[in-house]
Write a structure and sequence with these properties.
Number of strands: 10
CATH architecture of the largest domain: Up-down Bundle
Oligomer: single chain
Structural class: alpha/beta
CATH topology of the largest domain: ABC transporter transmembrane region fold
Strand order of the largest sheet: 6-7-8-3-9-10
Number of helices: 21
Length: about 575
């Protein structure tokens, strides 16, 4: 894991080296004050060398001026290095998430993913900047100050050194409980983020059903879990800080008393004793910094572990010799296809079917029978467990996903629109399309005239998930998007089931035009909308139990005929 972390420093090696050199210089400058103090007390003041006192004072001021500039560089450029690394990690994580299979998003809440891309990466950013500085520079300063203390008085310096193993022992004892508590805090925080995202997205449903109190209760449960995890975390942290602070306080008393005894017995003079006491702060400062750094270190490590957890999830990959799917005619063949969303749940069981080019093929049957699953398997949103699927006699696992999905257009019941303009939402079907192509697509979807009535026309912002549009308008925009994409294969998954009858008739006209010249798969509950389909398959419990055109299935007097009869009543 350390190698993966260090890799993100590589683009910023120059800034990193300069940041370390600046930090080392600040540490060296810090030792100037006790050196000058010792020299003044030992020589300059007793011998009344006032000109050298002034010179030493000027040197000290110049050193502090340089220190100010170096601290500015460390604080600004050091932090910007951390921010740049954070941006690189966030981009890598976003790219990786874009390539993850649908199953990942089935198992992970949006809010939890967002937490890993924000809070976790911020802690990693802080570790990236302060980590090397606090660890390397603190140990350098510790060694430098201890070496200087040895030049003053060796026995007293060895007494000073005894503090280090005591502090290491305390840190080792407490670190395990703190790390565990910190990880629970992270998990609890991501749960809260998930609940918050879900609650805000569903606020209209909450208000419609007057379930505000229920949402507050659910949120409070997550909030209390976060408080409990934080309590354990800060308890361990408090034990650590209070214990180490107590040891340092005792240490100061020991130095004061031992130094006094050494001074009384003549083993050290007053000037050296004074310089030693002043220099002790240089020895204690990096220790205090390392103690304070423990929390930041654990936060950063925990954040990077969670970052790696997602980065280690296998992405969708094309086969080694995958080819482009071009010049698609639209023939689709399923050969004994089986699939389940989990190992113990088989949704499709040995499904075989053939859809000819340009054919309108309908899938009907009870909810949960496997209709939508069939639609999801064609563009490889999920990987089949057994069997094969072909497009124009090409097995879909032998072609690139990009070329496969480029040739498949989907219009669903639940339309997703981006918080952007009408134009940009339509352009999602073909990013390099001209303005005229966008307008033509909107006209074919019967939405152009409405857009023209808007003050900002195609540049109108539609809000999150198209909240400023009606259901029918959102559906027409999604249809316009597919018109612009112009795929060879079209999937209509309950595309009109959420619309009222009047709107459904108008939308159906757009869909009928969209279906022209394409292989079309229609998933429908309203059987009246698929009467004219070339072929109809009845899916139940993952199997095709009936197949034929509308009239054939009616004459068979089977499941389809009963469903159709029930809907006529």
């Amino acid at each position: 894991m350390l190698k993966r972390f260090i890799r993100y420093y590589k683009p910023y090696k120059k800034i990193f080296v300069l940041d370390m050199l600046a930090s080392l210089s600040v540490s060296i400058i810090a030792i100037v004050y006790p050196i000058i103090t010792r020299e003044m007390l030992n020589d300059l003041i007793p011998n009344k060398k006032f000109d050298l006192i002034i010179i030493f004072g000027i040197v000290l001021l110049l050193a502090y001026l340089l220190k100010m500039g170096l601290n500015y560089f460390i604080q600004y450029y050091g932090h910007m290095m951390g921010v740049s690394m954070q941006a690189d990690m966030r981009l890598d994580l976003f790219k990786h998430i874009q390539l993850l299979p649908f199953s990942f998003f089935d198992d992970h809440e949006t809010g939890k993913i967002m937490t890993r891309m924000t809070s976790d990466l911020f802690d990693i950013c802080e570790l990236a900047h302060h980590g090397p500085e606090n660890i390397i520079i603190s140990f350098f300063t510790l060694g430098l100050s201890f070496a200087y203390l040895l030049t003053i008085n060796v026995p007293l310096s060895l007494i000073v050194f005894t503090i280090i193993p005591i502090l290491v022992y305390i840190a080792t004892k407490i670190r395990g409980s703190y790390t565990s508590a910190r990880r629970r805090t992270r998990i609890a925080n991501s749960i809260i983020s998930g609940q918050l995202q879900t609650s805000i997205s569903g606020v209209r449903v909450t208000k419609a059903f007057t379930n505000d109190e229920k949402e507050i209760e659910k949120f409070e449960e997550g909030n209390q879990e976060f408080q409990k995890a934080s309590k354990d975390s800060y308890k361990a942290m408090a034990q650590y800080h209070s214990s180490t602070a107590f040891v340092i306080d005792i240490f100061n008393v020991v130095v004061l008393v031992a130094g006094g005894i050494f001074l009384y017995s003549g083993q050290i003079n007053f000037a050296d004793y004074s310089a030693f006491v002043v220099s002790i702060s240089l020895f204690i400062t990096p220790i205090n910094r390392l103690i304070g750094f423990m929390e930041q270190f654990q936060n950063g490590v925990t954040g990077f572990e969670r970052f790696c957890e997602i980065m280690d999830i296998e992405v969708e990959k094309d086969s080694e010799n995958a080819t482009q799917l071009d010049n698609v005619q639209g023939k689709i063949t399923f050969e004994n296809v089986s699939y389940g969303y989990s190992e113990d749940s088989e949704v499709l069981k040995g499904v075989s079917l053939t859809i000819n080019p340009g054919q309108k093929f309908a899938l009907v049957g009870p909810s949960g029978g496997g209709k939508t699953t069939i639609c999801h398997l064609i563009p490889r949103f999920y990987e089949i467990m057994e069997g094969k699927i072909f497009i124009d006699d090409k097995e879909i696992r032998e072609v690139t996903r990009e070329s496969l999905r480029r040739n498949v257009g989907i219009v669903q019941q639940d339309v997703f629109l981006f918080n952007d303009t009408i134009k940009n939402n339509i352009l999602y079907g073909k990013l390099d399309a001209s303005d005229q192509e966008v307008i033509d697509a909107a006209k074919r979807a019967n939405i152009h005239d409405y857009i023209e009535t808007l003050a900002e026309g195609y540049d109108t912002q539609i809000g999150e998930r198209g909240v400023k549009l009606s259901g029918g308008q959102k559906q027409r925009l999604s249809i316009a998007r597919v018109f612009l994409k112009n795929p060879a294969i079209l999937i209509l998954d309950e595309a009109t089931s959420a619309l009222d009858n009047a709107t459904e008739v108008m939308i159906q006209q757009s869909l009928d035009e969209l279906c022209q010249g394409r292989t079309t798969i229609v998933v429908a509950h309203r059987l009246s909308t698929i009467k004219n389909a070339d072929e109809i398959a009845v899916i139940d419990k993952g199997e095709i139990i009936e197949q034929g055109n509308h009239q054939t299935l009616i004459n068979n007097d089977g499941v389809y005929a009963r469903l159709y009869s029930q809907q006529l009543k």
